[in-house]
Amino acid sequence: MENINRLLEKYFQATTTLAEEKVLRTYFESNAVLPEHKQFVSLFTAFNVEKEEVIPFEFKVQLPKRSRANKYIIQALISSGIAACLLIGFCAIQPKTEVENYAIVNGQMNADAEFAQKYVEEKLNEVNNVVTKNMKPIRTLHIVKKRLQPMQNLKVENTKSVKPDATTITPNTTVK
Amino acid sequence: MDSSQFQLQILSHSDKMFRLAKSMLRNIDAAQDAVQELCLKLWERREHLVDVENHAAYALRAMRNHCLDMLRVSKENIELDENEMCTEPCPHLQMEQKDLVTLIRIMIDNLPELQRTIIRMRDVEEMELSEIAYITSLSENAVSVNLSRARQKIREKIVMEQKQVEKTIWKT
Asked: pLDDT tens digit string along A52-66?
């Protein structure tokens, strides 16, 4: 009895250990509770009642569930996303391969080298024909000019011989 | 942490979490909502729970903080001061005075939030002072002081109640 009184005092001072509190609980659950302790039976009974209180049966914690199909769909989406990112990244990182050899035909860029070469040859031939045709009179003129050159020289020489000699002919000179 | 581990380490303590929430919120429906919300939150943070040593204490601490947030939001935290505490139960509860167990539970419910949380953690959940200190973010000494105050208040009430019962018996 003294032990129970001592434990009760300690209990209300909150200095009991869990083991000592278990002794008290066992005592108050038994049928051997002394009359002076009967008033505290309800206290320990109340704790026991609360201990048995559980979450209501109809209530169940609902966690978000992911079905297997959903899991695969999510995995597929993630994989596609990663692949797309990689592709975009690869394209962005890769240096630009610009077409260096191209021709603009009728305002449109054409990178077909064979076509461009033929087109250029054709156009150059046309130019050549035009130039050849138009240069013919010029060439003839050049020949004429070349052939007239000796005559030009001759005229100059003749003019020089006809010119009066300043030393010989003066105003005071008398004609013999 | 996968679903089965979460079930074993966290959801297995949902009854304790529910009791704590009910004690703090004093409402069964609100307590159920609190458990549901907290379990979802913990499920979302399940990767971090792997490192936790004491899952029960961690879950109860999270539950206490969650309930405190709920009380702050709803402003229903009308705590009764020590002086304002009901010395007499409400009239409809007086009918139940014969049922001392119910009366004691009401007495505990009328304690300040911290004291009723601590007394229930110790006397209902049988937790160590160190665990209660972790859950309530207090020192062990502070927990011990609050526990002592709570028990002594309940003792005074019980003694007072006993005297009143004796008086009525003598009168009749």
From this structure: 888 876 666 666 666
CA-to-CA dists, residue B97 to A119, A152, B33, B161, angstroms: 113, 153, 31, 9
Q: What is the 3-state secondary structure (H, E, C) of chain B?
A: CCHHHHHHHCHHHHHHHHHHHHHHHCCHHHHHHHHHHHHHHHHHCHHHHHHCCCHHHHHHHHHHHHHHHHHHHHCCCCCCCCCCCCCCCCHHHHCCCCCHHHHHHHHHHCCCHHHHHHHHHHHCCCCCHHHHHHHHCCCHHHHHHHHHHHHHHHHHHHHHHHHHHHHHHHHC
Tokens of A74: 């999510």
Question: Which residues in A lie closer than 8 A to residue B101 (C-beta atoms)?
Answer: 42, 45-46, 49
ipTM of the complex: 0.78
Q: Are A8 and A24 in contact (CB under 8 A)?
A: yes
How close A30 gets to chain B, by Cα (Å)? 17
B-chain residue closest to A9, CA distance: B152
pLDDT tens sequence across B123-138: 999 999 999 999 999 9
To probe the interface with B, which of A55, A57, A66 has the most B CB atoms within 10 Å? Answer: A55
Sign of CA dihedral B103, B87, B144, B69: positive
Q: Contact A46/B108, CB-based, under 8 Å?
A: yes
Q: Summarize chain A as % helix, strand, coil (round to 5).
A: 65, 5, 30
Residues of chain B neighbouring A7 (CB-CB closer than 8 A)? none
Burial A76-105 (b: 16+ CB within 10 A, else e): eeeeeeeeeeeeeeeeeeeeeeeeeeeeee
**Cα–Cα nearest to B81, from B111, B106, B107:** B111
Distance from CA of A36 to the nearest CA of B (A): 11
| Tens digits of residue pLDDT in B83-126 | 444 444 455 444 444 578 888 888 999 999 999 999 999 999 99
Which stretch of DSSP H or E encloses residue A110? Answer: strand A108-110
pTM of the shown model: 0.60
